[in-house]
Amino acid sequence: MSSLLVDNIGELVTNGTGEGPLGIRRDAAVLVEEGRVVWVGPSAYAPAADRRLDAGGAAVLPGFVDSHAHLVFAGDRAAEFAARMAGEPYTGGGIRTTVGATRAATDDELRATVRRLRGEALRQGTTTMEIKSGYGLTVADEARSLRIAAESSTETTFLGAHVVPAEYADRPDDYVELVCGPMLAAAAPYAKWVDVFCEQGAFDVDHARAILAAGQAAGLGVRIHANQLGPGPGVQLGVELDAASVDHCTHLSDADVDALAGTAHSDGSGTRTVATLLPGAEFSTRSPYPDARRLLDAGVTVALATDCNPGSSYTSSMAFCMALAVREMRMTPAEAVWAATAGGARALRRDDIGVLAPGARADLVVLDAPSYLHLAYRPGVPLIHQVMRNGVTP
Ligand SMILES: [Zn+2]
Q1: 215 Cα: distance to centroid of ligand 1 (angstroms)
Q2: 3 has pLDDT over 80
Q3: Long-range contacts of range 306-309, CB-CB < 8 Å, 24 or more positions apart?
Q4: CA distance 369 to 98
Q5: N or C: lower Cβ tally within 10 Å for the chain?
Q6: Which protein residues have a CB closer than 5 Å to ligand 1 (ion)?
Q7: CB atoms within 10 A of CB 56
Q8: Closest by Cα among 198, 286, 291, 209 to 246
Q9: pLDDT on residue 92
């Protein structure tokens, strides 16, 4: 059995035991065996190992957990972005442009895009990435989207209810029936989660409830796109269905915040339903940011994710999202780092990632900086010096 010691870590973010909410340890080392962390402690007391990775006094963090991304698509929407920056509003209608391109693409073209974006994210420190379908919107195209997604992630999400496709525009009830029946049956073998875009112009609360309940009955966990473009029932529906995460949360009422806070675990470890904030979407659609401070002050567990997609947020950079969260959403740098690591893990109901403690997966990043603070303090700068996933440096 080969062991690897990462030592000479100036500042180790564990999200476990240590100083402050990030569980920080100084002059630390991490011992890795068979893809798992087996020991964390002071560098000076580190056990012997077969190999050594010298962190050079830099900061080491758990790998980023991006719990919301749409990577299975073809084409891009750069022209739509340019038009929006010139003053046109974002409505979500552009999703149909990507649906046309995705249906026309070959499996290999879709696979190449997923691999390119997954690789791009990994080089920027993202060791876990959720991947949704949602640009196929036929039984065959949703199933193949998830089959391709499952080649790159175990966190795959069936989003057949992204928008009502043009051919069903006059009969959305029939489309919902298709999603709950044959489409779900074809998608479920490749999916861990079910998701719905619950929004004016997409799916209303009754349709969303039917689809999520059908997914649940097929053994999938629930997540939901909610309250992005305006106030609505999505967040409370997510709480009602024990969603792991309600995503976007840009327009919340007091009752929405109370509903999320009401899912708090009795041991004080946060809420069972996580609010996942996606500031890349507000950046790219020039919209008001969600109020992270309000959620955090109410005791709601918050995650940060990229929403990487060709329309409303074409970034794969978790560091960029953390910088936005700190600058625009009143999160502290420590809260943003926690939300991008442990928070993302909670949003996926995982306890083996987002943390560096014995038993956790050996997913970590070595920064080209002395502290996690630099992630928000030095926006746009490539600070990821080295990435390790499953104990392996790719
Ligand atoms: Zn999304």
Answers
A1: 18
A2: yes
A3: 306/66, 306/68, 306/69, 306/121, 306/278, 306/280, 307/68, 307/69, 307/70, 307/247, 307/278, 307/280, 307/281, 308/66, 308/69, 308/70, 308/71, 308/117, 308/121, 308/280, 309/69, 309/70, 309/73
A4: 38
A5: N
A6: 307
A7: 13
A8: 198
A9: 65
Instruction: Give 389's DSSP letter.
Output: B
Cα(68) to centroid(ligand 1), Å: 6
CA of 292 to the centre of ligand 1 (A): 18
C-beta separation of 347 from 328 below 8 A: no
Q: What percent of the chain has pLDDT over 90?
A: 95
pLDDT at 90: 73
Contact yes or no for 60/9 (Cβ under 8 A):
yes
93, two tokens = 């209608």
* C-alpha span between 121 and 174 (Å, rounded): 37
C-alpha 70 – ligand 1 centre gap (Å): 6
For residue 110, report the phi and psi dihedrals to the nearest 5 degrees.
-65, -45
Give the Cα separation of 150 and 274 in Å (integer): 24
Residue listed under structure tokens 């112009």: 201
- pLDDT category of residue 359 using cuts at 50, 70 and 90: very high
Ligand 1 centre distance from Cα of residue 313 (Å): 9
Tens of pLDDT, residues 314-344: 999 999 999 999 999 999 999 999 999 999 9
**Bridge pairing between strands 126-129 and 131-132:** unpaired
Write the DSSP string, 276-318.
EE-HHHHHHHT-PPP-HHHHHHTT--EEE---BBTTTB----H
Paired strand residues for 160 = none
pTM of the model: 0.97
- From the list 366, 277, 262, the residue with the least C-alpha distance to 328 is 277
How many angstroms separate the alpha carbon of residue 183 from the centre of ligand 1? Answer: 19
Q: Is the pLDDT of residue 139 over 90?
A: yes
CA dihedral 158, 152, 316, 338 (to 10 degrees): 80
Residues in the chain: 394
